[in-house]
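debug: dumping io for the single-chain case to check the tokenizer round-trip. Nothing else runs in this session.
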Amino acid sequence: MEVAESPRLVGIGSVFIDDIVLPSGQTYMAQLGGGVVHALMGACIWDERPGIIATVGRGLPDDSAQRLRHQLDTRGLVELDIPQIRAWQLFEEDGTRRELYRVKETLPFIRGAQPEHFPPDYEQSQGFYLLQGVDEIRGWRKVLNGIVLWEPLQQIMAVENATSIRAVLSECQIDIISPNLIEAQAIYGELSADELVNALLADGAHCVALRMGARGSIVADKNGNRHHLGAVSLPTIVDQTGAGNTYCGGLLAGLLQNKSLLEAGTMAATSASFCLEQVGVVNPAEVQTMKRDLRNRQLLSTVAISH
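debug: decoded output
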């Protein structure tokens, strides 16, 4: 029996089911979610078929399971004998989000898949997206060969965890770290965006992608490359859920396709823009290649370089 090749890109985390509540009161129930799923769909936009190593529980809706199988290599899914996690995603007018869990047992989903779940089928994979905590990223870094993009769990980005997060950057090989602006300021204080990027690089990250919402993002590396990227201008934003994760998936896809840091950054921002136009996880099948490439070219043409 022929064994399928390892996917080039793999995401590690957990599958969520989201009940989204917008400031207007509009609700979108039972949406496929989870940061790793958002990220991998962001990579799919760029013609990847990523693998997923993620925890799922009993009662995952059939349509969500079908979407996962259709877009992703699901050999790494870890089926748990507990109810599938489901969470309210409550958005406020200022763009902040609260997450309220609707099941009792949440820790296996918050921690996500762990190194003991790593399938031999993925040993040749080249790049990994991880939505993980401090202890978890340390464990995974020991078993992964390839580029690692770490998006720290939102729950750990607090001042009391600053020392442990900074220690990970200095002691582990974190190829790319991608917090958002608020999260980075929780660790380093009220610094400017460029100062935050400098601090993350100084602590040991090889590359930083600082996400700033409507203000765009900054991508920078230890070699002195630094680019301030704008966000795609959209007439209507439908749903912000997972846009940052989707950005990370597009960024990693670009780097694995041997794009420059600048090009990978605009691919990331382009991926995020399509997420903002759809409810929940972006559907790559609804993203037109021509429209994708046009947005990417427009971003490339407007990038300002900071030194």
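debug: round-trip ok. Residues 6 and 122 are 5 Å apart (CA to CA).
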